Amino acid sequence: MLHPTQYADVLQEKVAQSGAEVWLVNTGWNGAGERLSLKDTRQIVNAILEGETGAMREETLPIFGLAIPQEIAGVDVNTLDPRNGWASPAEWQEAAEKLAQLFINNFKQYSNNEAGARIAQAGPQL
Fold this sequence. Notes:
The protein is 48% helix and 0% strand. By secondary structure, the protein is mainly α.
């Protein structure tokens, strides 16, 4: 098993060589205990592949710094922002901070070199 930064270097090289865009698509559970529907997942992935995601919101997702499309044809705009799947903004914030802390704590073991420290800085920020 290699240090995670070595895998990150390989991924970065492949992305640069191919000119690919990298997207993170949440197909998991939301705060209401519901999964993103297969229909919405397909619409989102197809929009990405077709280059039809449109403009991104000016604001990125707090803590994680992720950009979110303003809209995707056929997908309820509320589905695109994970904060909307929670009963309240406070509940989302609490869960997001807990998840971020898990990432931060886990990645400490890999931040023992310059590359690992840079990757940790690109991750969730509390």
